[in-house]
Structure formats: C-alpha cells, structure tokens
Amino acid sequence: MSESLSLSVVVPVWCEAATIQSFLQPLQPVRAAGHEVIVVDADSDDGTADLAAPWCDQVLVGGKGRALQMNAGADAARGNVLLFLHADTLLPGDAVDHLERFFNSPEQWGRFDVRLSGQRAIFRVIEWFMNRRSRLTGIATGDQAVFVRTSVFRALQGFAPIPLMEDVELSKRLRGLSRPYCIGSPVTTDSRRWEQGGAWRTIFLMWRLRWRYWRGESPESLAAAYRADVRHAES
C-alpha cells in the first residue's frame, strides 16, 4: 500500500495575540482531516502561546528568529510533508487537495501562488510579478507558503540560521533537487506591510535587498537595513 499525505503545518509567530485565533480557525478543517498544526512562538509576552494552544496540535516556545522557529517546528513534526505558513497568510480551501497531488508527484518541494489582501490595482500587479518571477527563477519566498518533503528538509538540515533571506537560501538548495511544484490556487497574504510602508516603496526595498543578497552581502547586514527602513516608514 502506498504512503498517503501526512501534513505538518509549521507557523512561526511572535506577539500575535490580536490575530492568532482568527488565523488558526480556518486551519481546523486541516486538523480534522488528520493533519497537524504546530505553532512555534518566539517567547511572546502578550499571551500568544496560550491563545494558540486550543487551536493547534503543538505549541513550542523558543528563541526568536523565523528560521530557528521553523526548524524547531520541523524537528517536532510527525508529517511526511512540511508546510511553512506565516501568521498573516491564509491557505486556499483546496490546499490539501493540491498538496496530495504534489505528494504523488516526483517533485521534492513547492509553493503556492500568492494573492495580496488589498483591493488596489497595484496589488494585482505586485502579485503577478511575484508569481511570475518565482516560476521563472525557481525561487520561493515565505509569503508563498513553501512546502517540502520532510525527509528532504531534514537531509538538507533545514533553514540556514540567518536573520533574513532564509527562504531564498533554502530555495536555492532545493532547486538543485527539483523545480518547485507550483500551485496556482493562491494563498492570501495580508497587504498591511505594503500599505503601511507604501506599495512602491516596499517593492523597491525588497528588490534592493535581494540584489544586495545576490551580490554576496551578509543576511545580518540586510536584516539591519530592513529593520532601519521599517522604523523609518513607521516614524
């Protein structure tokens, strides 16, 4: 008898008390179908972990840093496929059906197309470029809900312990094993950061950071530049 899909959804969070329950509620049908949801909290001081506990299978509390949190969740996972989901991103209703098709494919990893929650026309343009770029380059970002066979992820020793670009770095290694399995049914990502920072300003920031990364600049310096830009936009 062939093995069937067993999904572990890993959600890194920090200080998400205001929204964590409304985020986890749509994942309950995934749990009801026999899959698991693991929340990895970066020691929030607002009660995020306690609020999440009734809505997931495991809550882990550890050090801060998305790569470290996702690795911790993957270590605890029981499923044969890992799906890394940001706490501002919602899966489509047919996600599990698509992931079952992925599981029965020869591909080793993949990602969803992305849709931004905002209604402005500029967000449709941003989505198109994000999805098109990903299909052309074989590189995925965390907003696209990356998924990977658990055995492959562990063989590659997971995400590099870096403060930024951990998704791009992992994609480059996974791309050496197979092209990504691209799911056209999109996840929906909150457009709040684009709206707060300004859509065009955010686009140029992300392009600039990726360009600097491809030229060899350290993730640590890029993370510092990103934090400085966010603080400037909020001031």
Write the layout of secondary structure elements.
Elements: E1 7-13, H1 20-24, H2 28-32, E2 36-41, H3 48-52, E3 58-61, H4 66-76, E4 81-84, E5 89-90, H5 95-103, E6 109-116, H6 121-137, E7 147-149, H7 150-155, H8 166-175, E8 181-189, H9 192-197, H10 199-214, H11 219-234
Parallel strand pairs: 1-2, 1-4, 2-3, 6-8
Antiparallel strand pairs: 4-7, 5-8, 6-7
Structure description:
By secondary structure, the chain is α/β, with parallel strands linked by helices. The protein folds into two domains: 7-190, Alpha-Beta Complex (Spore Coat Polysaccharide Biosynthesis Protein SpsA, Chain A); 194-235. Helices cover 45% and strands 18% of the residues. The chain has helices at 20-24, 28-32, 48-52, 66-76, 95-103, 121-137, 150-155, 166-175, 192-197, 199-214, 219-234; strands at 7-13, 36-41, 58-61, 81-84, 89-90, 109-116, 147-149, 181-189. An eight-stranded mixed sheet has the order 3-2-1-4-7-6-8-5. α10 packs antiparallel against α11 (219-234). The longest helix has 17 residues, at 121-137. The relative contact order is 0.14. The mean pLDDT is 90. Keywords: Cell membrane, Glycosyltransferase, Membrane, Transferase. It is found in: Cell membrane.
